[in-house]
Amino acid sequence: MSFDVPVADWATAAVDYLMDHGQGLFDLISAGLDGLAYGIEELLRLAPTWLFILLLTALAWWRTSWRFALFTAAATALIVGMGLWSETLVTLALVLAATLVCLVVGIPLGIVAARSDGAERLIRPVLDFMQTMPAFVYLIPAAMFFGLGRVPGVVATIVFAMPPAVRLTNLGIRQVLSELVEAGLAFGCTSWQLLLKVQLPAARPSIMAGVNQTIMLALSMVVIASMIGAGGLGDTVLRGIQRLDVGLGFEGGLGVVILAVIIDRITQSFGSGKND
Amino acid sequence: MPAHLELARLGKVFGTDPGAALDALRGGMGKAELLAASGQVVGVHDVSLGIRQGELFAVMGLSGSGKSTLVRMINRLIEPSAGTVTLDGADVTAMSRRELVRLRRRKMSMVFQSFALLPHLSVVDNAAFGLVVAGTPKKEARRRAQEALERVGIGDVAGQRPDQLSGGMRQRVGLARAWVTEADVMLMDEAFSALDPLIRSEMQDALVGLQRGARRTIVFISHDLAEAVRIADRIAVMAEGQIRQVGTPAEIIEHPADDYVRAFFRDVQPARLFTAGDIAVPGDTAAEAPRVPATALLDEILPQAAASDAPLAVVSEDGAVVGTIDRARLLQALAKGRAEA
How far apart are CA B174 and CA B172, in angstroms? Predict the structure, then answer.
């Protein structure tokens, strides 16, 4: 017996349909995301390299320790020395743009999921799908809808990196001690006051862990997204692979790792609540 | 005259069909049968209480007796399945969400067993929480919260975070937070149960001290008998979701309504509970009879009673004789609360 479910045909048909009928919407999204990523990149380039490094080091000092500040200064100097500063800024801008969208959409979704079991049941399988579908698969429709370049890279990154922001916001709010919620209600909080004065502050460590995870996933995805022309450090890695140039690939990879370590430590410090 | 805070036939069933469950209970079905038949759990059944203005009213019971559910139905943290709560004639159970928010801001406050302080706020901001939620300007809220903290003896830690404080100090913050809103009714759910015995009695003193300054109506949930007897004006004894007896500590100990209540109060020592004034009877006293103050505990007058063949003269603060106690009366009082075996 032959049993054939043409999922591939359906997926193609769905993408074709969207391309035929949704181009206006995609153009709008494209313009918005391009502007966002480009704007952030320009902003990052505003300061001269030495000042940027100085500010980053100061931030690391304030949020963590002098040791880590020293590492930050040395590691960013190494990036400059490898001639990858410009690529690093491109990557950082992509990560920040994607993260921004992830949080603006993801945290409210997490709040909705935390407040309604029905919404959670609806959202959870979508998140599972987004997280487990191999990241490369997003690249194809992203490139088809948005062409090649920065925008499809950001789109694929958003899809891949959003789930932790939603999940950990949801989890954090649901895990707020029931007596704390009762206290909020007993003193006459409205629904909004309960959210803003009790639930979100009490869930902050969990939400910040979600933000941190989203940034980390975004960083790993923008490298993959270089395959559709997103540019940045991923591009350096990709060229290394294409030319079998171990040295070049390693330099690009090292740049990504340095960026990841610095962002990770600094964002984590906001979750643990050090210095406030 | 109706009571200040009136609970009428209040009931709570946790389950899928509370209405049918309550009908079954009224029809005589037991709670265990109901659980077996429909999987529904009875939290509270048919509780009626009238609590007076300014009274410190304790609800006693073992864990699982429904007392925490009962207190949460008063401010509707838990929605009652049946019955009404009335405060000064206003039906709390019929209030809209908006009215309920107003009620909780102005008329009722609460103290929790696990303190329930917000970890991200300083002590003074925690104490000011109820005021800020109600829209009081931040500056004024802080000032009043600071005053309240000073009244419970921790004005000096206002700038710290709750996690820097000991359990006793945290609950003082919880007490200040509930006190400062000037709500008529303060609900206290096992407020001191998580504290060490010594700290607990300090907190009881702090509460009684606050009450002396401005009497609020306090509904105090506790499983600690000594605590209830020590601070409460009246006690309601709860078991399996129902009230077994309501009365002053002395009334309950002298006339327990049933074996459950008697067993519950078995370990209370009348010598440390009753004062001479409580058991004094009218009568003439000999001029040479030893005099004891009406406020003295029985424990304290035992030596005089042993040394004197004449009945003791009980005198009030201004020196007037209010009654007498002979040895038989004293022994009778000391034997109260023991099982009548």
Answer: 5
